[in-house]
C-alpha cells in the first residue's frame, strides 16, 4: 500500500490517500468556495472519483447525511478529518443545520456534502441546502459520479433517449396505484427505486397500471451479486413469486409499450368498422389514435374506402 500526503489549495488540510485507485499522484483540489455536492459509490468503493477524494481531503467543512458513513468512506480511502467540522445534515435537521452551513459558506469556506451513497438529491438529501445556497447567491458545484438510476438504465436494454425518474413508490397500495397512474402518459423509460420487501406488490401494481410492458429489475449494482433481469413485467412477477423477495437494493425500469406496426389489413379493418357509425373525419381520427398512425394517411385511406 502506498501512502501519499499532500497539501491542497490554499488550505492547510492534509490528505493522506492510500493507493486505492491505481494512481500514485493526486491532483490539487479545484474546490471553489461555496457548496460542492459529492457523488459517492453505490456499491464498489473504487467507483469513487479522484476529484471526489480530492474534495473530501481539502474541504474546510464536511457535511454528510450520516457521519458514520462519511467517516467510513474517508477511512477506506485514507482521508483524515484533521480537526475539520463533520456535520450531519439530513431531512430531520435540515432547518436547524442549514444556517450553520450557510455561515461557513458566507465566510468563504469550501463546504462539501455527501449522502450515504450515490448522488446527493437523487432520492437523497441535499435539495433544500442547494436551494438555500443558490438563494444566497453563493457558489454551487458538484462532482459527478455513481447514481443507481443511471447505472440501471445503462444496463436495462430499454430506451435511454428519454426517461423519467420516479424515485421511491409509496408504501400503500392505493397511493402507489394513483402515483403510478400519473406516469401513464409519459413517453420513454420509467425508473423507480424500490425496496425488495415490497417489490412483488409494486410489480403487480405496475402491471395493472401500465399493462405488460417491457421491463427490467436491476439489483445490487456494482456489487458482488449484481443482477439485471430483463423481460415483460409479467415475467418478473412470475420470477419473484417463485423466488421470494430478493436481497439487496433494487431499481425497477419500465419501457414504453411496444406497439406492433399495424398492417394495411389491420388499418382497413379498423376503418371499415369505424365508418359504419362515424363520418370519414371522425373515423380517421379515432383509428389514427387507436393504431398510432399519422392522421393524414388514415384520412386518405378512409376516403378511398368510403
Ligand atoms: N442517491 C442514490 C443514487 O444516486 O442512486 C440513491 C439513494 S436512495 C436512498 C437508495 C435507493 O437507491 C435504493 O433503495 C435502491 O432503490 C437504489 N440503489 C442504491 N444503490 C443501489 C445499488 N447498488 N443497486 C441497485 N439499486 C440501488
Bound molecules: S-adenosylmethionine
Question: Largest sheet, order of strands side by side?
Answer: 5-4-6-3-7
Give the overall shape, derived from the CA principal axes: elongated
**CATH architectural category of the largest domain:** 3-Layer(aba) Sandwich
What name goes with the CATH superfamily of the largest domain? Tetrapyrrole methylase, N-terminal domain
User: H/E order of the elements?
Assistant: EEEHEHEHEHEHEHEHEEHEHHH
Give the count of helical stretches.
11
Task: Offer a quick outline of the entry.
The chain is of the alpha/beta class and 306 residues long. Helix content is 38%, strand content 20%.
Description:
It is a single chain. This protein is α/β, with parallel strands linked by helices. It folds into three domains: 5-146, Tetrapyrrole methylase, N-terminal domain (Cobalt-precorrin-4 Transmethylase, domain 1, 3-Layer(aba) Sandwich); 149-254, Methyltransferase, Cobalt-precorrin-4 Transmethylase, Domain 2 (2-Layer Sandwich), CATH 3.30.950.10; 264-305. The protein is 38% helix and 20% strand. It is built from eleven helices and twelve strands. The chain has a five-stranded parallel beta sheet, sandwiched between helices. It has a five-stranded mixed beta sheet with strand order 8-9-12-10-11. Strand 1 (3-7) and strand 2 form a beta hairpin. Helix 3 crosses helix 4 (127-135) and helix 9 packs across helix 10. The radius of gyration is 26 Å and the shape is elongated. The N and C termini lie far apart (82 Å). Residues 1-26 have low confidence and may be disordered. S-adenosylmethionine is lined by residues 42-43, 115, 117-119, 122-124, 147-149, 193-194, 218-223, 249-251.
Amino acid at each position: 500500500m502506498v501512502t501519499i500526503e499532500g497539501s491542497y489549495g490554499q488550505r492547510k488540510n492534509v490528505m493522506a490517500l492510500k493507493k486505492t485507485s491505481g494512481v500514485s499522484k493526486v491532483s490539487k483540489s479545484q474546490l471553489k468556495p461555496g457548496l460542492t455536492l459529492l457523488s459517492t459509490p453505490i456499491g464498489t468503493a473504487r467507483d469513487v472519483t479522484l476529484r471526489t477524494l480530492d474534495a473530501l481531503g481539502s474541504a474546510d467543512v464536511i457535511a454528510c447525511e450520516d457521519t458514520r458513513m462519511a467517516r467510513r468512506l474517508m477511512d477506506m480511502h485514507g482521508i483524515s478529518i484533521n480537526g475539520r467540522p463533520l456535520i450531519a445534515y439530513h431531512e430531520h435537521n435540515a432547518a436547524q443545520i442549514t444556517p450553520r452551513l450557510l455561515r461557513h459558506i458566507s465566510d468563504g469556506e469550501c463546504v462539501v456534502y455527501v449522502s450515504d451513497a450515490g448522488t446527493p438529491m437523487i432520492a437523497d438529501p441535499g435539495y433544500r441546502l442547494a436551494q438555500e445556497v443558490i438563494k444566497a447567491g453563493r457558489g454551487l458545484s458538484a462532482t459527478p459520479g455513481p447514481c443507481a438510476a443511471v447505472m440501471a438504465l445503462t444496463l436495462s436494454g430499454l430506451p435511454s433517449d428519454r426517461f423519467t425518474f420516479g424515485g421511491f413508490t409509496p408504501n400503500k397500495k392505493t397511493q402507489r396505484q394513483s402515483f403510478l397512474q400519473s406516469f401513464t402518459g409519459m413517453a420513454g423509460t420509467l425508473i423507480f427505486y424500490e425496496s425488495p420487501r415490497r417489490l412483488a406488490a409494486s410489480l403487480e401494481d405496475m402491471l395493472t397500471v401500465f399493462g405488460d410492458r417491457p421491463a427490467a429489475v436491476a439489483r445490487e449494482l456494482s456489487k458482488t451479486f449484481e443482477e439485471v433481469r430483463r423481460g415483460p413485467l409479467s415475467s418478473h412477477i412470475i420470477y419473484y413469486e417463485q423466488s421470494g423477495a430478493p436481497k439487496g437494493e433494487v431499481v425497477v425500469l419500465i419501457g414504453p409499450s411496444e406497439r406492433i406496426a399495424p398492417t394495411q389489413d389491420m388499418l382497413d379493418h379498423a376503418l371499415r368498422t369505424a365508418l359504419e357509425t362515424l363520418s370519414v373525419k371522425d373515423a380517421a381520427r379515432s383509428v389514427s389514435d387507436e393504431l398510432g398512425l399519422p392522421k393524414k394517411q388514415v384520412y386518405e385511406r378512409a376516403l378511398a374506402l368510403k
